[in-house]
Amino acid sequence: MPRAKPASNSKNIMPPNARNTGRRDNRGPKEPKEPSDTVEKVVFINRCAKVVKGGRRFSFSALIVTGDHKGRVGCGFGKAKEVSEAIRKASDSARKAMKNFSLAQNTIPHEVTGEFGGGRVMLRPASPGTGIIAGGGVRAVCEAVGIRDVLAKSLGSNNHANVVKATLEALSKLRPREEIFRVRGIKMKTTKAEAAAEVATA
After folding, report:
1. What is d(CA 66, CA 164) in angstroms, rounded to the nearest whole number?
2. Of 32, 176, 37, 179, nearest to 98 (Cα)?
3. Average pLDDT over the chain, rounded to whole?
4. Beta bridge partners of 106
5. Which of the ends of the chain has fewer CB neighbours closer than 10 A, N or C?
C-alpha cells in the first residue's frame, strides 16, 4: 500500500523571487576606503615586563608621528599587550592631535627653539638641497610635516617623547614673514613682478 505524502507546510515555502534578508546573505563587498594622504612614522616602541607569580607579563608602548607632508603633523602614544594594537592606538591618537604649522616652501621661515620637559630642540632654515640634518624623533616630525631642508640639533634630554614634543613646540612658534611684518606695522616691499602686475592692472 503506497504511503501518503506528508502535507507540505506552507509556512516554509518561499516564493522564487523572495529576497532573503538574513545577515549572511546581506554581506556584500565592503566599500573601499578612500586613500589617505597621511604618513605614519614609528619613532619608538618600548617593551615593559611585569614579574608575576607565573612568570613575566609583557606590555608594549608605541610613539607614532603622523603627517600629510603639507604642514599638518601630530604625535600619539599608545599602550597594549600586543605591538600591533599599541601602534593602532598611537596612530589614532596622532591623527586626532594633528595641527597646522607655518612653513616656507621646503624649509622653515626662521630659526626657532622648542622645549618640552627635559627636551630642547633647535631648528634652523637651510638652503635647497641640504636635506634634513636631524635624527630620531626630530627627523620623523620634519619628514611628516613636509620639511625637506632644515638643520636641527637636540640640546637636551634624549627621551623620545620629550624630543618629539619639543620639536612640535618649536614648529608652533613659526610665523610667516607677512604675519611678522603686519604685527610690527611694517609695509612689505613689493617685488618687481608684483610692481609690474600692479602697473598692468592700473
Report:
1. 12
2. 37
3. 82
4. none
5. N
* Neighbouring C-beta atoms of residue 74, cutoff 10 Å: 21
Contacts 24+ apart (CB under 8 A), 58-65: 60/86, 61/86, 62/86, 62/87, 62/89, 62/90, 63/90, 63/137, 63/160, 63/161, 63/164, 64/40, 64/90, 64/91, 64/93, 64/94, 65/40, 65/41, 65/94, 65/137, 65/140, 65/141, 65/144, 65/164
pLDDT higher than 50, residue 180: yes
Q: Identify the H or E element spanning 114.
A: strand 112-116
3-state secondary structure of 41: strand
Sign of CA dihedral 87, 117, 156, 144: positive
